[in-house]
Every structure is written in structure tokens, then in C-alpha cells.
């Protein structure tokens, strides 16, 4: 492996570590207080109460699982795909709240600052995380295509 490939691999590892840490941390904060997270999600006024309750219970665990899944090659592609999709959904929801001038906290990291300035910062963070996850997703797909392998590997005697 040449120096450029080593540097690219190290950058991908650092990117996955940052993305994984953000989502494990954010998910853990929400999982510890699902009622507060449900209130934050409800503040967006986008979903009915039963959906808000389900999201408050299950979304934090999905974030944690995806954050951890970035470090296990068999789950990396799926984790990156889900995190990219989540970042896009978060960005749209935050933009919607900002446009509607809601005075709410984004709910990403528990209770926090409210208002337009806080939502703008949250939107920029969601967009930055979407770009990071998209870049890592693209790199993972290119790396897998370049290896010419598939996952799971073919069973013994099965043609690839």
C-alpha cells in the first residue's frame, strides 16, 4: 500500500470515528431521557403523537447501532447509508422548523439552546454530517467495487 492509500485509509478511519462518536453520543443522550426527546420531536409539529412516541423510543438505539456499525466491515455500508439518510431527514426537519420560525431546540443532543440561531447551527451541523457520511459512503462503495468482492463472500463451491 502506498503512502497516499495509507493517508486515505487513515482519513476514512478518522471520519468514521468522528461520525460514530457523534451518533453514539447523541443516541445515548436521547436514550437516557426518551420523554425529553419525545417533547423535542413533538416541538417540530410534523408527526402525530404515536409516531413521536415510537421515534423517541427507537431512533436513539438506531443511532447508537449505526455509530457502532461503522467499525465492523460487514455492517459499515448499511450503517453509512442509514446515517446519511438520517442526516438528510434531520436537515429537512430542522430547516422546516427554522422556516416556520419555531422557538425550539433541535433535540439532537438533549435539551439545548432554542431559537433561530440555534436551529441554524443545528442545520449546519446536520448538513456537515450528511456530507461526511456521504463521502464515507462513496469511499466504502468504491473500495468494495475495487476489491471485486461481495459480502457475504460466496459459499464454498459457489461461483462468484
Kindly describe this structure:
By secondary structure, the chain is mainly α. It has one domain (3-146). Helix content is 75%, strand content 0%. It contains 5 helices and no strands. The protein has helices spanning 3-32, 34-43, 49-69, 73-99, 116-147. Helix 1 (3-32) packs across helix 5 (116-147), helix 2 crosses helix 3 (49-69) and helix 4 runs antiparallel to helix 5. The longest helix is centred in the C-terminal third of the chain and has 32 residues, at 116-147. It is elongated and about 55 Å long.
Rg result: 18 Å
- The proportion of residues forming helix, as a percent range, comes to over 70%
Tally of discrete structural domains: 1
Uncertain regions: pLDDT < 50 for 5+ in a row? none
Distance between the termini: 25 Å
Give helix and strand order, one letter per element, not per position: HHHHH
* Secondary structure category: mainly alpha
Q: How many beta-strand runs?
A: 0
- Total number of helices: 5
Write the layout of secondary structure elements.
Blueprint (H helix, E strand, L loop, with lengths): L2 H30 L1 H10 L5 H21 L3 H27 L16 H32 L13
Helix pairs in contact: 1-3, 1-5, 2-3, 3-4, 4-5
What brief labels describe this structure?
160 residues; mainly alpha; 5 helices; 75% helix; 0% strand
How would you briefly describe this protein structure?
This protein is an all-alpha fold. It is built from 5 helices and no strands.
